[in-house]
Amino acid sequence: MTTPTSHAQEVITCDLCVKPAQQFCNNCHLSLCVDCVSKHVDKLKYQPHDIVHFKNRKVAFPESELYSNQRCEAHCQQCDVPVCLKCIFGPHNGHKVKDMPEIFNDKKKKLEKETKEIESTVIPQYKKKNEETESKISIIMDKFDELDKEKEENRKSWHQEVDTIFNQLGSLIKSIKENLLAALNSQQSKIKSQIPDMTQTVQQNKEIMKSNNVSAVTNYKSKLDEYRNMPIDIDVKLPSLKTNTVQGRELSLELEEYKASLTQTKLSSLTEEISYLSLQKLLDQGKSISTIPSGVTPLGAVACVGVDEAWVSGADKIVRRVDIHGSVRDTVTTTCKPWPSDIKVTRQGELVYCDVNNRTLNIVRHGRTEALITTPQCWKPGKLCCTESGDILVCMYTTDYRQHKIVRYQGHTVEQEIDRDEDGEPIYKGGRYPLYVMENNNGDICASNSNADIVVVVDKSGRVRFRYDSTPARRKISFNPRHIVTDSMSRIIVTDWNNACLHILDQNGQFLRCVDNCGLHNANGLSVDNEGRLWVGLAISGEVKVIQYMK
């Protein structure tokens, strides 16, 4: 649409072609030639059209938003809004304005220019970028498929290498066994063959002595020297298999002259190398880096999630997920009466808790709770441990508290029960206090028994390896162990309720030191986060202290 000039009217062209316009659609504000009227109506046949002669066209001005029944015949340049006459003398007084037809034409030209740029330049650029991204995705997919295939090939190759090592070891063991048995069997054969001959000689000698036959006596040839010459005794040296395992670093074994090892010479990243080295040395004293209000007293259990968060539970039905700053990130309301006896987190990050009265272990998945395990009649679940292999260790006790045992579950299946030693005696002393349990990196099962005030460690088969009674720690008050954990270096850490401290042992039960300078009064809950820090729950205050104890 154009405005009149001072002397002549410009030729107005059709908005759909280049012919002169004679018609105008007041609804759509389009100039049309005679031939394009029907095209326009047919193309937009579902909306009304008011087709008039061009000279009878209506200029549709918007209504003012401030003043009713006022048409905006101008446009405020400063505020970029349509304005009426009252607006110009009112809130837009002194602002620069343009006539609406002029601004209409300017905006329409700008719209046309932008539309052409989007259509001719921007959309092709986006399409090109989309194709490039699609190509990158395809390359990444192919590369990772290739890596996965290569990984499986290496897995097969490594397994073959290990199989070769142990097949050779098996052949050597078999050869040593056969050679040793062959020598002993040969010696035994000689010994056994002499016994009948000596028995016969004794019988003949007795008959000669009885007969008093001069010839028989004088002709007798002694075999005593022959019999005295016993077969040379074979020195039996039984071989022993020497093995060495450094978690994540080296696996080696040795049998006589045969040696084999698998060594990791380079860790996957510099960060991992630094992390591994930093975990090797204990601090002289523990360092409290955060004190977190849990919102529940008394506080019972703590279970870390990743680095800066942990689930906590205590004397109510709600399990709370708190971060290191004390903010509650999530909650789970249980049906436990009176409250969950323990909580842990699986390797997939799912919350598991014990319901003593219902004898169930429950897992929270995608916001829904389901029963995972139900303990047998007369046995109640106390504490638990979610292992790296995916198993769950459950500490159980009878309703009369006389018997305690640790049961390993794979899914719903009982795979192992630990309660008796080689002599048939109970490993764990009965009493009202539950066992606390944790599986170490080497497969040992570490349990604290407050009924006997000791820590008992058994190997993966259930044989007792050692007991720790705190004597090396030389504490003033008697040892009262509660929650127990292990760290990345296979150290064993246990809370001591009576002495407000933590005892740290190596994986063989050797006392290393106590953390007793961090105000750990009524230390109860205990967990390790992914940074190797200890989260210690204090029962009475309801606080959780985050402790740095390694360099």
What does this structure look like?
This protein has six helices and 33 strands. Among the domains are: 109-228; 242-272, no CATH class; 280-302 and 378-550, Neuraminidase. With 551 residues, it is an alpha+beta fold. It has helices at 34-43, 85-89, 100-211, 214-218, 224-228, 270-278; strands spanning 23-25, 30-32, 51-53, 74-76, 81-83, 97-99, 242-246, 250-255, 258-263, 282-293, 299-305, 309-314, 318-323, 328-333, 343-345, 351-355, 360-365, 368-374, 379-386, 392-398, 404-410, 413-418, 435-439, 445-449, 454-458, 464-468, 481-486, 492-496, 501-505, 511-515, 523-528, 534-538, 543-550. The strands form nine sheets. A four-stranded antiparallel β-sheet has the order 10-33-32-31, with no helix packed on it. Strands 11-12-13-14 form a four-stranded antiparallel β-sheet, with no helix packed on it. Strands 15-16-17-18 form a four-stranded antiparallel β-sheet, with no helix packed on it.
Cα-atom radius of gyration: 45 Å
Return the CATH architecture of the domain at 280-302 and 378-550.
6 Propeller
**Strands, total number:** 33
The main β sheet shows up as: 4 strands, antiparallel
Q: How far is it from the N-terminal to the C-terminal residue, by CA?
A: 79 Å
Q: Could you list the spans in which at least 5 consecutive residues all have pLDDT below 50?
A: 1-8, 265-280
Beta-strand proportion:
25-35%
Shape assignment: elongated
Which fold name fills CATH's third level, the topology of the domain at 280-302 and 378-550?
Neuraminidase
How many H/I helices?
A: 6
Please, what is the average pLDDT? 86
Backbone structural class: alpha+beta
Helix content: 25-40%
Give the spatial strand order of the biggest sheet: 10-33-32-31
